[in-house]
Specification:
about 230 residues, alpha/beta, Rossmann fold, 7-stranded mixed sheet
């Protein structure tokens, strides 16, 4: 197996939609080249507090995308902290082609995964070639600090990217929460790079950062070299 790190993707919105099919296919194919399997791992933790109807909705939509791509869909019902200690789930991510955190509540993702054996296993798989993606809440959770959206205050992320902070849905967020966005951008003492990612748009790292999708990535604070 090639032990290069896999692709890392921060997505503004659009997980599992046809408009993002080519992008998600690319994530999987990159992992194949690194010796990984044709498996598409859905992690729905961000929306797991929204009830069974929403859980089933996201499960179905992810399966539809996986079928369009031609991959094996593995839905992991990681809804609570104890699920991140489930050995079956830890085993399920082994050699995955794509591990995808979908949207919802970023704080819930952090509370569930931080310092857990499943998060450690996911990081190991990414470091050995699996593609790892976070959409909306998932992208926010990967950073060092999460802008308060479902909470009034900002909170710590999973620190996969400790020097980066993400505002997803950026082309819509300015209309939804303009004061919250402004205060986060101008936060006193912040020395991190803050990026806004438009809907149906992704920022991918494979040695260097590049943008794909229909929108733009906005560097709101700090510097980020884009190709």
């Amino acid at each position: 197996m090639n032990h290069d790190k896999g692709l890392l993707a921060l997505v503004g919105s659009g997980e599992y939609l046809p408009v993002m099919q080519e992008f998600e296919t690319g994530l999987l194919h990159s992992a194949f080249e690194r010796g990984k399997k044709n498996t598409y791992i859905q992690i729905p933790t961000g929306s797991s507090g929204e009830g069974d109807e929403r859980r089933n909705y996201w499960k179905r939509r992810g399966k539809e995308q996986s079928d369009r791509i031609g991959s094996e869909c593995i839905y992991l019902p990681i809804h609570d902290r104890e699920d991140a200690f489930n050995q079956d789930f830890i085993n399920a991510v082994t050699d995955a082609g794509l591990i995808y955190f979908s949207g919802g509540d970023p704080h819930r993702i952090v509370d569930t995964f931080k310092e857990s054996p499943l998060w450690d296993a996911i990081i190991y798989q990414w470091e050995t070639g699996s593609s790892l993606a976070g959409c909306s809440a998932g992208a926010m959770a990967f950073g060092g600090t999460i802008m308060g959206i479902r909470k009034t205050s900002h909170s710590d992320g999973l620190n996969l990217l400790p020097d980066i902070e993400v505002i997803p849905h950026y082309d819509k967020m300015l209309g939804w929460l303009p004061d919250r966005v402004a205060s986060f951008v101008a936060r006193v003492g912040a020395d991190t790079t803050l990026i806004g990612i438009d809907e149906n748009t992704a920022l991918i790292r494979d040695g260097q950062w590049k943008v794909t999708g229909v929108g733009k990535v906005h560097v709101l604070r700090g510097t980020l070299e884009l190709s």
